[in-house]
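Cross-posting from the chemistry board since nobody answered there.

I work mostly on the small-molecule side, so proteins are not my area. We synthesized adenosine-5'-triphosphate and want a rough idea of how it might sit in this target. Sequence and SMILES are below. Is it possible to get a predicted 3D structure of the two together?
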Amino acid sequence: MISVEHLTKYYGSFLAVDDISFEIDKGHVYGFLGPNGAGKSTTMNIMTGCLSATSGHVRIDGHDIFDEPDKAKRQIGYLPEHPPLYMSDSPLEYLRFVGEAKGLHGTELDRQIDEVIHKTGIAGVKNRRISNLSKGYRQRVGIAQALLGNPRVIILDEPTVGLDPLQIIEIRDLIKELGQTHTVIFSSHILSEVQTICDEILMISKGKLVAFDTPANLEKKLLAPNEIRLTTDANPDQLRHILEKVPAISRLTVEESSGRWTVARINTDRRDIYELSRAIYLAFAAGDKVILEMALKKGTLEDVFIELTESSTNEKPAGQKEA
Ligand SMILES: Nc1ncnc2c1ncn2[C@@H]1O[C@H](COP(=O)(O)OP(=O)(O)OP(=O)(O)O)[C@@H](O)[C@H]1O
């Protein structure tokens, strides 16, 4: 449906999008997740043909967004981060204007306006001035205009920013609903939002695509437990001696040692932490020492996000031409 190949964008000498490639299939909800300044809007602006790329390709249903903009753009409805709404218009007037600009007219235009008004739940405010609407309703009007022309892909840039909690829930529900009939791509810097709405997450950091998978797979792949915390009656020297014989321990940290008990953190590079915990139990039994408590520490998707977004850089590759 959408193919992005080696997309790169420089603003002067600043690398905002760094050789991003991915494929998007039809009928899913995709979330661009990244902190402020990660390059989400830049990528979306290029994908929708609103901004040129320094290099790389974007193809929508096989049509290159720069070589065949009309055919490619017909497939896309876009809600930019700052939608150009005409504040003195009513939603109805504004939708008529956008619909006509998209080449719709007559009964087909009327039918589509009715349909998007219904889908986005703005029937009750369709004749009010947009300037008098809440931010949540303005966002709905922005989504309604994106739906005109019946595009197969809807791209929404930070659609929940600046909304109150109730409006956020309503817009998230609307995005989920749209995902049943369209391919939806939306950006957010809120992990939990992307986690709950999306079928697939694209994590973007400092212009790089650092992960692309389903929320469940990201958890499985990236969040295998890699830390054991244990409390024992061995003193720190005995503890080190017992664990010397256990392979695959990358780090041992004694956190507390007071009176009878020692609390320690054990890290491993191995994926199979269950095998490691078994080896630890056997080593303690052989050393005639007691494990009072032993727990596996599992990270959260948030930990992965922080780790991935902190480890990428915006360094400019040697010999790269500036835009
Ligand atoms: N026109 C521009 N000229 C120079 N730098 C720009 C321009 N537009 C964006 N940038 C920079 O490019 C980087 C990526 O910006 P972009 O808006 O794509 O990020 P984002 O992930 O959408 O963040 P946000 O959520 O804050 O909009 C940022 O460091 C930003 O300051």
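Reply from a structural biologist on the board:
Welcome over. Reading the output above for you: The radius of gyration is 26 Å. Residues 225-298 form a domain with the Alpha-Beta Plaits fold (CATH 3.30.70.980). Happy to explain the token format if needed.
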